[in-house]
Design goal:
Elements: H1 10-40, H2 46-64, E1 67-73, E2 83-86, H3 93-100, E3 105-110, H4 117-125, E4 129-131, H5 136-152, E5 156-159, H6 177-185, E6 189-195, H7 197-200, E7 211-217, H8 231-245
Parallel strand pairs: 1-7, 2-5, 2-6, 3-4, 3-5
Antiparallel strand pairs: 6-7
């Protein structure tokens, strides 16, 4: 499995507990503000919330946790609209995804996030996409239903092709969902590689060691000539990039 043994100190646990408390405190403080913004703007403030407020919540939490977060871009400006794909092997990924502040993006997240009432309210109000990862047919159907809304509003999607952080190897097998969406939306794939997250935090809880995390935003992969019939080849092509960045040879 992708999980690895990480030894945490008392200081690590202390920082992590404080960061978790800060995260939920900031969520509680910002929720009425977000709700008011959405009501006043008739829902048009969703992009501002995802691009500005989400990083404003995540970045202080990362700092308290002792994580120095950096973004390195190898393309300017960030391609929009696009299907952004990220490697996923750490609980810390949730915070670094929010801290990215990507333009006009909506997150494809697991259905279970909605068990938290704050995530449920904020996610639904801002148009995030929740899927049942354990049921691939329902997941695909949910994504297909979102295509019309995504295209109409020229929104981007952020997805984790591995589906879950619990997978074999450092870079797990890639599912078809993000690649089917790229073909249907006629969007490029923009790979984002999180470096350091797995080494700092890989458990079920947000207990994190002190250290550095870097999000590498790479140039887009053109999908204009992609076909569903050859999707496995395209998946292999993109996954090979991640294996190279992780310096893995299969």
């Amino acid at each position: 499995m992708s999980s690895q043994q990480i030894t945490f100190s008392v200081a690590d646990y202390t920082r992590s507990i404080l960061s978790i408390l800060l995260f939920f405190l900031l969520l509680l403080l910002f929720t009425p503000i977000i709700f008011l913004l959405l009501v006043i703007t008739l829902g048009k403030a969703s992009n501002f919330i995802v691009e500005t407020i989400a990083p404003a919540i995540a970045k202080p939490v990362l700092k308290v946790a002792g994580v120095t977060f950096k973004i390195k871009k190898y393309v300017e400006p960030t391609p929009v609209p696009a299907v952004y794909v990220v490697n996923h092997s750490s609980t810390l990924d949730v915070l670094t995804i929010l801290a990215l502040g990507l333009p006009h993006v909506r997150f494809v997240a697991k259905w279970q996030f909605q068990y938290n009432p704050i995530f449920l309210i904020l996610g639904r109000l801002t148009g995030q996409v929740f899927i049942r990862r354990e049921d691939s047919d329902k997941a695909v159907e949910t994504l297909r239903k979102s295509v019309k809304r995504i295209k109409k509003n020229k929104l981007s999607l952020l997805m984790a092709p591995e589906g879950s952080r619990k997978h074999p190897g450092i870079i797990g097998p890639f599912k078809k969902g993000p690649f089917r969406m790229a073909i249907e939306l006629k969007y490029p794939i923009v790979p984002i590689y999180f470096e350091g997250n797995r080494e700092l935090c890989s458990g079920d809880f947000l207990v994190t060691k002190k250290g550095a995390s870097t999000a590498h935003i790479f140039p887009p992969v053109d999908t204009s000539a992609w076909k569903i019939e050859s999707i496995e080849n395209h998946i292999h092509e993109v996954r090979s990039l991640y294996l190279g960045w992780a310096e893995i040879r299969e």
